[in-house]
UniProtKB/TrEMBL annotation:
One of its GO terms (molecular function) is DNA binding. Keywords: DNA-binding, Transcription, Transcription regulation. It holds the Pfam family HxlR. InterPro entries: HTH_HxlR, WH-like_DNA-bd_sf, WH_DNA-bd_sf. Residues 3-103 form the HTH hxlR-type domain. This is Transcriptional regulator. Coiled coil: none annotated. It comes from Hypericibacter terrae. The keyword DNA-binding applies.
Length: 106
């Protein structure tokens, strides 16, 4: 049973950039596409668009298009996306503990 849950979580978060996108949205709450591009300079426009579409499809990110010229598109976390924050914070804490352990506690 637990393995099924892990597979589902990994399917939603898989991809090199999704977790990084989520961290940027946690810190700023609403970001335009161009702001995400600037925040993650190593990602291509095509890949950013794909990762955002995937996160939107999975109910993690909400995309809002404002009817103006040029179009203004904003991205924000959904309520369920916000619920990921403590889990991702826990992963960061674990990573720091692991690094400290590997460094010999230095």
């Amino acid at each position: 049973m637990a393995a099924d849950g892990v597979e589902e979580v990994l399917a939603v978060l898989e991809g090199r950039w999704k977790i990084l996108i989520l961290f940027h949205l946690f810190s700023r709450s609403v970001l335009r596409f161009s702001e995400l591009e600037k925040a993650i300079p190593a990602i291509s426009q095509k890949m950013l668009a794909q990762q955002l579409r995937d996160l939107e499809r999975d109910g993690i990110v909400q995309r809002t298009v404002h009817p103006q010229v040029p179009p203004k598109v904003e991205y924000a976390l959904t309520d369920i996306g916000q619920k990921l924050c403590p889990a991702l914070d826990a992963l960061l804490e674990w990573a720091a503990l692991r690094k400290s352990s590997l460094d010999g506690g230095r």
